[in-house]
Design goal:
about 350 residues, Immunoglobulin-like, 3 domains, 5-stranded mixed beta sheet, about 25% helix, binds heme C
Length: about 350
């Protein structure tokens, strides 16, 4: 009997000691290994008990991307991701001695670039909001507030032309963790005012997933475009499939119209042969081909010449998706080359 009680006390004691040791060590809370991300930012969240570490460094594919002097019991930050598999090395040290080290692999997928469309074996999407995350709610608000639930109707949306800055900080619960999603220069309308739930349905499964195809959400607000494009005889391949977000970031991007790349680069991603310089003008006209970029667009003032100068990226009444509602090729040419 005595022996039993003794060993029991021993067990409890060693358990407590283990817990203390555990509590004082640096731990990674997010992300898990082998996850899949759609966009170029990875959120990292670490528990760093007081005095457990004085430096955290993160390398992405062997290049240092973050270096943090921890001063809170939780450190949350983000690092950029390249397309494909990213090797993430996280190291914490104290007084020059390494106290924590781990390596994760994260796959960044892309619908646009062939090589990265398919998730490699062993990787899977980890739905953060579908999992257990009560530890985060010690400091963050995880459930959306009434003010986050803005209506989807475009008219009610436009009526809400309010002061962005105050709205963001005061009303969006999503902001504290996802603030970088709206940080690129060209921000999509609803994202600029943190109306995240106009596309991310909180009652969907998994939580916050977006309806597919994209047109299900996009045409909810872009009614004018829907009516216009669907009345056209020819609709561009990806638009027919409802894949708006293959070209447009739903959040924010470096390029006008929230495109993932500049228009020319975007088109050439799928139509490589048209970027060769041999487009439009055959040998009979010119040995140089017709310019498709790097000049001002003579019609659309302020824009640069690009594939979209002659083609509508969405729909047209002409088979080659010609812009300007022209009926034949010479009408197209005349748009820019007036008869003198
Ligand atoms: C002890 C409080 C605390 C806890 C617990 C906490 N966070 Fe944070 N988190 C913060 C603070 C404070 C910031 C703002 C950091 C800043 O701006 O320097 C933040 C910012 C973030 C950011 C934004 C980082 C960036 O680069 O902008 C993310 C993402 C995040 N937290 C995720 C999480 C997740 C996931 C958890 C749970 C695993 C969590 N946090 C738990 C305090 C906490
Ligand atoms: C505690 C921080 C935190 C808060 C608050 C938060 N998120 Fe997240 N969210 C995360 C993290 C971490 C991920 C994992 C993916 C990533 O790193 O972007 C994530 C992922 C997502 C995803 C991708 C699907 C998934 O479950 O992984 C969506 C969509 C999303 N969040 C929407 C929202 C919306 C909308 C809100 C506001 C109502 C919100 N989030 C609030 C931390 C947070
Ligand atoms: C116009 C619609 C729209 C709005 C508004 C929107 N999103 Fe998204 N979001 C999407 C789509 C589409 C995806 C891609 C989902 C997919 O393909 O499964 C996405 C994906 C995400 C992801 C997942 C990223 C990943 O790597 O998996 C996060 C996180 C996210 N959104 C956060 C937000 C936050 C925070 C807001 C508010 C500022 C917001 N979104 C507003 C349409 C939207
Ligand atoms: C909640 C309503 C709403 C939804 C849903 C929505 N949009 Fe928008 N969108 C807007 C508003 C508002 C603007 C800003 C209009 C303006 O600036 O004239 C806008 C502007 C745009 C622009 C033009 C940007 C520019 O600079 O000209 C593009 C492109 C766009 N949205 C694409 C999309 C795509 C793709 C989807 C689906 C993933 C989508 N939108 C879903 C409301 C919405
Ligand atoms: C093949 C790529 C591609 C796809 C797919 C695509 N867009 Fe666009 N979109 C563009 C480009 C390029 C522009 C800018 C054209 C320019 O330079 O004027 C644009 C412009 C826009 C604009 C602003 C100007 C306008 O025409 O009203 C909106 C809104 C828009 N797109 C919405 C959508 C929606 C909604 C979908 C899905 C039905 C979609 N786009 C699918 C490439 C695309
Ligand atoms: C994600 C891939 C993708 C991107 C990006 C893309 N396209 Fe396309 N495009 C297609 C597909 C798929 C078709 C249909 C091919 C077919 O029917 O043979 C197509 C067809 C076309 C056609 C021929 C239509 C016809 O009926 O003859 C034109 C013109 C065109 N695209 C122009 C553009 C322009 C301009 C851009 C940039 C704004 C662009 N594409 C970007 C995938 C893409
Ligand atoms: C100066 C006007 C002009 C520009 C700029 C232009 N195109 Fe074209 N495109 C045409 C004309 C005219 C045709 C039809 C004659 C032909 O096939 O050469 C055409 C045809 C096409 C076709 C369809 C061919 C088919 O067989 O149906 C595609 C795809 C295409 N262009 C893509 C592009 C892409 C991608 C770019 C940008 C790199 C671009 N175009 C730039 C005028 C232009
Ligand atoms: C969107 C405007 C636009 C359209 C439409 C257009 N062009 Fe051009 N074209 C240009 C521009 C810009 C240049 C370059 C002018 C310069 O640099 O001085 C050019 C140059 C040319 C050149 C001289 C090429 C060289 O080697 O310098 C020829 C020939 C030409 N275009 C023929 C055509 C024909 C044929 C069509 C109809 C199929 C056409 N263009 C449609 C804008 C256009």
């Amino acid at each position: 009997m005595r022996i039993k009680i003794l060993s029991c006390t021993f067990l409890v004691l060693s358990f407590i000691i283990l817990r203390i040791a555990e509590a004082e060590a640096v731990t990674l809370q997010y992300p898990p290994d082998k996850t899949v991300m759609e966009f170029d930012l990875l959120n990292i969240s670490m528990e760093v008990p007081q005095a457990s570490a004085d430096l955290i460094t993160v390398k992405v594919n062997d290049k240092e991307k973050a270096s943090i002097v921890p001063d809170k019991k939780y450190e949350c930050f983000s690092v950029p991701l390249a397309l494909g598999i990213n090797k993430i090395d996280i190291t914490a040290s104290r007084e020059g001695k390494q106290v924590f080290n781990t390596t994760l692999n994260v796959f960044r997928r892309s619908d646009l670039v062939g090589n990265y469309m398919k998730t490699p074996a062993g990787f899977k999407k980890d739905y953060f909001h579908a999992g257990e995350n009560s530890r985060c709610s010690e400091c963050h608000m995880l459930e959306p507030k009434e003010t986050d639930k803005r209506p989807v109707s475009p008219t009610s949306f436009i009526a809400e032309t309010f002061d962005k800055k105050t709205v963001i900080q005061a009303t969006s619960t999503c902001y504290s963790c996802h603030n970088k999603i709206a940080a690129s220069p060209y921000v999509h309308g609803p994202v600029a005012v943190w109306s995240c739930l106009s596309c991310h349905d909180m009652d969907s499964d998994p939580k916050y997933s977006v309806k597919k195809p994209d047109t299900e959400v996009c045409f909810g607000c872009h009614i004018e475009q829907k009516t216009d494009w669907q009345s056209k005889k020819f609709i561009h391949g990806p638009v027919t499939l409802g894949k708006c977000a293959i070209c447009h970031s739903p959040h924010s991007s470096q390029y006008p119209a929230n495109l993932y790349k500049s228009t020319w680069d975007l088109c050439v991603t799928c139509h490589a042969d048209r970027g060769s310089g041999r487009h439009v003008l055959g040998d009979a006209f010119s040995t140089q081909g017709h310019p498709t970029r790097d000049r001002p667009d003579p019609v659309r003032t302020g824009k640069k010449l690009s594939c979209a100068s002659c083609h509508d990226p969405h729909a047209s009444n002409f088979p080659h998706l010609w812009a300007f509602e022209v009926e034949d090729m010479f009408d197209l040419c005349r748009k820019c080359h007036y008869d003198k």
